[in-house]
Amino acid sequence: MDISKTISDILLLYELSMAIGKSVDYDENCSSFLKLFLARKGLTAAWILRRDEAGYECTYAMPLASCRTTPGNGYLAGLPEDFDAKILPANSAKLQWVTPVPYTDGSVTIFNLRNQGLLFVHSIREAPFTELELNQLRPIILKFSYSLEGSSIVANQQQLLKRLESQNRQLNDYAHVVSHDLKSPLHNINTLAGWVQDDHADTLSAEALKKLDLIRENTERMEKLISGLLNYSSVKEGSVEREEVDLYQTVKSVIGILPITKTTRVRVEPLPMVYGDPLHFQQLFQNLIDNAVKSLDKPKGQVEVGCDFQQTPAVFHIRDNGKGIDRKYHERIFQIFEKLDTEGTRSGIGLSIVQRIIEHYKGRIWLESQPGEGTTFFFTLGTTATRPR
Amino acid sequence: MYIADSTIDQMVAQILDHAQGKTSSLLVGEHSSFNMEELIDALNAAGARFLGGIFPKVIHDNTIYETGIVQNTFENVEEIFTVKHLDTGDFTIPEFHRETGREYTLITYVDGLTQVKSAYLLELYNRFGADVNYVGGGAGSLSLEQMPCVFTHEGIFQDAAVCGLVAMDVSLAVRHGWEKIAGPFIATRTKGNVVQELNWRNAFEVYKEVVEARSGKTFTDSNFFDIAKGHPFGIVREHTERIVRDPLAVNEKGHLICIGEVEENTFLDILEGENENLIAAARTAVEESLAKAAAPKKAVIIDCISRGLFLEEDIQKELDGVVGPLKAKNPDISISGALTLGEISSFGQGLIQLFNKTIVIGIF
């Protein structure tokens, strides 16, 4: 046995094997392996045909100039499923329609890529591979077919993701446009109703004035609903604003703008600095604290905002001693337009916005509640949180 | 034809006179004293059609020049094009109609010091395929300082290649004559043209062990190429000679910088050459090429400058050994060429290869 030839064979197989799967991209994967295969084995061209409903489709060719779609072929259809490789004269009638350029000399070797189709290689030699070489190449070709399967799966996923992103973008744009266009006439209705009340307060009956009040209340509610929708659609994936945000100051300023009665005590514990969009964190705490305040039903309302730094990631909480939420609503409340109050003053969008913001920062939200005793919302953020300065 | 350095007007007049309306391939010696941009402007103004490059040295018949222009003319040049931005990979090769059944040759001169020549050559092959012959070489300065060095009517460029698609067949032969002394080694870590590791060890450590033991010489801070020029790498291929890769320098990390890329996990041998073997290989190349050529009219010699540096004064013997057989049976044959930074050919039908320390003979 020629040991140096055996070592060379093994090293060549190692080299070929290492060229497979260098990229998950289908074309780059093919290029990386096939250019080496052609160079080392002195081959002229390589192409892959994959069976689809219409017959065989050329999915890759080197050189690319020779790639073309081919119709079905009786010879290929008749190949057994478990063959490994076959060598045919390049001018064989059996290769009609599957050889991209009409080769008159040499040979074409067909390798079985299993469910990834067939790999064809052209050589100017009539016997480009010995039986031993074909046996040596069997695991390489099998590995190549597995890597192509991986590339195909990734390509399908990427295509799906692209489609989803596009649909999501369209949906956001749609929500934004519709919300914006709806707000304008609503605002007009509200203003006009106000003018009618002001201008004809003396002549209109009390019942008519009350109905005008109802019109204005409903338009204001509708406006809030639409503003909520606008906020919801504005929490987009990949928002670019990223800066250091002092959450303690954010919560303090939110408390300053919320209508909080004198019987309510809001306690804010130390909160961390985080990186992100300041507007997102303002929306997040505004919705959670507003919900907490609105749920209060005791003579002395208590709301507490805090953060447990002992855990990783840090866990934030907003705790109230309000009316509490029944367990059966714990998941539903995060769905858009879901609300528990029957007064109709809330849009049912607030917690959906909160959840969307937290998802945007790769965090998690959950709650614990005892009806009659109160509720605690917990959440984490994927963004780096540091202890307050 | 050889055109010595003179005024732009005189050189343009000589080029036009020799071209007689045909397309010119202009090989310029790097120490020429004229301004290339002025020459290009003047050729454009005169309506000349041309492509070319600046090379360390140029060849006309059996003489090597460091200055002046070697002109070769081609009748059936169907397209001339420039491919820019080879360094960024942001380039495309244009597509041209070719007549079925007609023979084509693509002449290409590429910036020999651009980083990713293999991607360019692969794209060229992908575009034009195996039914076109390819011949050319790497342009640039022997100082290894990168500069604009390939040109057409569009101007002179760096990190670029120029191509001429000629509707003519060419008989090609590629030989080097270097022999294996050690190996195989696996290039376990590489980056472009830099071999960082051999057999999972620092590349220079491995290379040094082999070469110092073989040559009896010791590497110092300043003599790397003096020793390494006699011990290139050989990339193993089946059915033909190894592809030579020239280790040009060693960096502070002990990584070997080559002319031409070495893919990761390539297996390599370390080679050694004897002057007489290299000269004999060149003679074999010309014989192989002549044997396949039907009616030789022009010969193009693309010889490696590093081969020239290794052979020293024996480069003339090599050239005489090539030109002799060419002239013997074809006294009127026009012979032109260059000593290049890497040689390009599609010898044996198939992928275009970039060679080092190799001689490529093309007979039209």
Walk me through the structure:
The complex is a heterodimer of chains A (389) and B (364). Chain A has helices spanning 3-18, 26-41, 74-77, 131-199, 206-234, 247-257, 278-294, 350-360; strands spanning 45-52, 55-62, 70-71, 85-89, 107-112, 118-123, 243-246, 264-268, 273-276, 301-308, 315-320, 364-370, 374-380, 385-386. In chain A, strand 1 (45-52) and strand 2 form a beta hairpin. Chain A is 44% helix and 20% strand. The mean pLDDT of chain A is 85. Chain A is an alpha+beta fold and 389 residues long. Chain A has a six-stranded antiparallel β-sheet with strand order 3-2-1-6-5-4. Chain A is elongated and about 105 Å long. In chain A, 31% of the residues are buried. Chain A has three domains: 3-153, Beta-Lactamase (2-Layer Sandwich), CATH 3.30.450; 159-234, Helix Hairpins; 243-386, Heat Shock Protein 90 (2-Layer Sandwich). With 364 residues, chain B is α+β, with helices and mostly antiparallel strands. Chain B folds into two domains: 2-175 and 277-363, no CATH class; 179-272, no CATH class. Chain B is built from eight helices and 26 strands. Chain B has helices at residues 8-19, 36-45, 117-128, 203-215, 224-228, 275-292, 305-311, 315-329, and strands at residues 2-3, 23-29, 50-55, 57-60, 63-65, 69-74, 77-83, 104-111, 132-139, 150-152, 155-157, 161-166, 171-175, 179-186, 189-191, 194-198, 201-202, 233-235, 243-250, 256-259, 267-272, 298-304, 334-340, 343-345, 353-355, 359-363. In chain B, strands 14, 15, 16, 17, 18, 19, 20 and 21 form an eight-stranded antiparallel β-sheet that branches. In chain B, strand 19 (243-250) and strand 20 form a beta hairpin. In chain B, helix 1 crosses helix 2 and helix 6 (275-292) runs parallel beside helix 8. The interface between A and B is medium-sized, with 28 and 26 residues.
